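hiii so um. not sure if this is the right channel but i have a protein structure encoded as tokens and i wanna go backwards to a sequence. like what aa goes where. can anyone help
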């Protein structure tokens, strides 16, 4: 919770009470808990101290000499509404109505006397985590407002910085690029970034999802067909290779291309010429190929479903897009961006995330990656009623998710996980560390690639269900 001006400890706490013994007790206990503490006996003196130096939390009694604790609370909250300063009100049971009034005036919470110092430290720790989240949300909101990004990609984490550098260097060449990553990570955005950064930026960007086109039509879609080449070919069609000439052809889910089409694709890439279905002559083409897949093409080569020579042709440069769970604070950055997009679309006055909602987003594993996060924020904005997204606005799976800590040797059952879950998380962690290189991951894990591929497929299906 350390304030931005504090140099040590968890943060700075100002305690206001006219009971000297209680002040001494709280000062000693909070300092032992890691906080820097200032104490005073009146609201007037507390206001002076707040003007002199910053504090993270004010703990004040309701009954004070001179200005009451309730008036003090109201003034502090109103004068510092733009800061993250939290006010805790101390009250005896008989003055509970005043404590409720303080909450209405903006106090963070109230504490019942006699105080339990350990409980107060725990409460301050929780406030600190929320304040850290609030500061991070404000920082990310500023980043989004400044439209700081990389060719449509948004993220400031180390994995994304590494990705940006690789995309920038790959864009300077005309070599084929294979983009890998889990479903929903933004592989097409990477392909578009490569196109916009390349010398072909003024040419067309032609995307095609190979898994969405029936096998018998894919050859015609890629290379074109002559009039009368087959029953429904009432007129000639040039094909996507010709359409992409001078620009970039993006083959998404390239691992789904049938074996009968793969030799023709390889020849088109090597000779830069294509022959339409039913045509007599070849046509020159000039395209830069970017392909993407969430499959393991090396395993496809081993089992005979993907040609080895085609694999080497498309995999000149390999770019792996990290999963969202490996991108840390990018979750909140992306969430703020989606929030603003959908607030404008739905005409809502939603401006940010509550600390509780932000914590839930950070705790979730995001098996559907950025696509799932986008859908989550669209729903939250559509259903939300306030200026900030609250926990109850999030989908149930996000609200109730608990990231189990894999603590070795813990005596707390809540910190333990099933062996299969430990294996899953470790395998996914190794995949992140090796940048999606399944061969290296299999070697690191002591598995053959087929076994690793089967496990990853099983995890993907379980996440999607």
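sure thing!! here u go:
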């Amino acid at each position: 919770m350390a304030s931005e001006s504090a140099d040590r400890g968890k943060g700075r706490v100002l305690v206001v009470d006219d009971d000297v013994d209680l002040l001494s007790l709280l000062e000693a206990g909070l300092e032992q808990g890691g906080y820097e503490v200032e104490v005073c006996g009146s609201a007037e003196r507390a206001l002076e101290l707040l003007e002199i130096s910053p504090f993270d939390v004010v703990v004040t009694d309701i009954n004070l000499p001179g200005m009451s604790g309730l008036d003090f609370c109201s003034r502090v909250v109103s004068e510092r509404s733009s800061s993250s300063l939290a006010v805790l009100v101390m009250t005896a049971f008989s003055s509970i109505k005043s404590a409720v009034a303080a909450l209405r005036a903006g106090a963070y919470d109230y504490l019942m006397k006699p105080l339990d110092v350990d409980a107060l430290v725990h409460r301050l720790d929780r406030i600190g985590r929320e304040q850290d989240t609030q500061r991070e949300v404000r920082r990310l909101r500023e980043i989004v407002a400044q439209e700081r990004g990389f060719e449509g990609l948004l993220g400031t984490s180390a994995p994304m910085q590494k990705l940006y550098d690789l995309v920038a260097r790959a864009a300077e060449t005309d070599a084929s690029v294979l983009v890998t990553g889990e479903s929903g990570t933004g592989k097409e955005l990477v392909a578009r970034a490569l196109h916009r950064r390349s010398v072909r930026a003024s040419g067309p960007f032609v995307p095609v999802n190979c898994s969405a086109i029936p096998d018998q039509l894919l050859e015609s879609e890629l290379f074109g067909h002559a009039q009368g080449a087959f029953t429904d070919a009432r007129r000639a069609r040039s094909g996507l290779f010709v359409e992409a000439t001078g620009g970039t052809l993006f083959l998404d889910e390239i691992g789904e291309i049938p074996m009968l089409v793969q030799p023709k694709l390889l020849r088109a890439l090597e000779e830069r010429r294509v022959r339409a279905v039913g045509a007599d002559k070849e046509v020159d083409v000039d395209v830069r190929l970017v392909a993407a897949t969430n499959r393991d093409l090396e395993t496809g080569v081993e089992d005979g479903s993907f040609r080895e020579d085609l694999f080497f042709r498309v995999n000149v440069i390999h770019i792996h897009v990290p999963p969202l769970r490996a991108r840390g604070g990018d979750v909140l950055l992306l969430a703020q961006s989606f929030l603003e997009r959908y607030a404008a679309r739905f005409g809502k006055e939603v401006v940010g995330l509550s600390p509780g909602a932000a914590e839930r987003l950070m705790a979730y594993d995001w098996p559907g990656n950025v696509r799932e996060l986008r859908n989550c924020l669209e729903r939250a904005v559509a259903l939300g009623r306030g200026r900030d997204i609250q926990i109850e606005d999030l989908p149930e799976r996000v609200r109730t998710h608990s990231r189990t800590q894999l603590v070795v040797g813990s005596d707390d059952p809540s910190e333990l996980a099933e062996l299969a879950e430990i294996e899953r998380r470790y395998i996914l962690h190794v995949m992140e560390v090796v940048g999606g290189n399944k061969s290296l991951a299999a070697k690191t894990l002591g598995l053959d690639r087929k076994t690793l591929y089967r496990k990853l497929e099983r995890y993907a299906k379980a996440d999607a269900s």
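oh and The chain has 19 helices and 14 strands.
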